[in-house]
Design a protein that fits this description.
Rossmann fold; 2 domains; binds phosphoric acid mono(formamide)ester
Length: 300
């Protein structure tokens, strides 16, 4: 039995296998081979894309979904622990998909459960299913994952999608540009991870400095919900806004990704440029999550 808690739980071969299966699902998105299965969708934190694409994936595979999108309607509000909730739900289902604000909560759930657990985001830590759809989108737009320059922009401190993506891309000889204000720099543990693997990265506070030198511009939202000091959030919340007039000299193959939701970091005038890929990226979440579920349940 295998869970997906951190992107490091999957080898390079497993990552490539899931991406290939996702490609097959994109070509044929109605499959019913999970008929009779039930999958829990437990969202202790708000979500639009992750929850809806997982639940659509479950339905398209022929399984049924149970769960909640608002934990205030559950017995957690009466004081039930996460451990007890997982032990109960585990009795009803074949897999658990869970988002929770606490870092490490998904790992903990996977230790309590006897069915596979998928981490749909645990605090500022990891968001591995997002990473697999990011990789799928990178492969789709660049034709390869090898040797690319990825410019990560925005909240690199709390942005769990950047942490997972950095680790996954480390299999494919990348170069990184980290564009962030001092307060939201990439944490040391992730830079140490790259140093140990001899992977190059540059840090800057200027969005313009390396805008023309990347294959993927990975924009992120400043994660208001992770700040303990709201004054600090106010200082940095609008630090970068990408608009269409800034894209005049970017690489022809460059694509802009964003895990979404966006707030002010990408102006709507970018949406109609050939560089914008974030809505297709969100669509890809469906195919990739179908592939993750199939793989973890031993069907593909
Ligand atoms: N990308 C992402 O996790 O979006 P949601 O918060 O809407 O699920």
């Amino acid at each position: 039995m295998k869970s997906l808690i951190s992107i490091r739980d999957f080898s390079k071969e497993e990552i490539l296998h899931v991406l290939e299966t996702a490609r097959e699902f994109e070509q044929n998105r109605v499959q019913n081979f999970l008929e009779g299965k039930v999958i829990a969708s437990l969202f202790f934190e708000p979500s639009t894309r992750t929850r809806l694409s997982f639940e659509t994936a479950i339905n398209r595979l022929g399984a049924k979904v149970i769960g909640f999108s608002d934990a205030s309607n559950t017995s957690q509000s009466k004081g039930e622990t996460l451990k007890d909730t997982i032990k109960m739900v585990n009795n009803y289902v074949d897999m658990i998909v869970m988002r929770h604000p606490l870092e490490g909560s998904s790992r903990y759930a996977s230790e309590v459960a006897t069915v596979p657990v998928v981490n749909a985001g645990d605090g500022a830590n990891q968001h591995p299913s997002q990473t697999l759809l990011d990789l799928y989108s990178i492969l789709q737009t660049q034709g390869t994952l090898e040797g690319l320059t990825i410019n990560m922009v925005g909240d690199l401190k709390y942005g769990r999608t950047t942490h997972s993506l950095l680790q996954a891309m480390s299999h494919f000889n990348p170069k990184f540009i980290f564009t962030a204000p001092e307060e939201l720099k990439m944490p040391k543990e992730y830079k140490d991870f790259l140093d140990r693997r001899g992977i190059e990265y540059i840090e800057t506070t200027s969005l313009n400095e390396y805008l023309n030198d990347c294959d993927i511009l990975y924009m992120t939202r400043v994660q208001q919900e992770r700040f303990t000091d709201l004054m600090e959030y106010e200082r940095v919340k609008d630090v970068y806004t990408l608009n269409a007039s800034m894209l005049g000299n970017v690489r022809d193959n460059m694509k802009i990704l964003h895990p979404l939701p966006r707030v002010t970091e990408i102006d709507q005038d970018v949406d109609d440029t050939k560089y914008a890929y974030y809505f297709k990226q969100a669509e890809n979440g469906l195919y990739v999550r179908m592939a993750i579920i199939s793989y973890l349940l031993g069907y593909r």
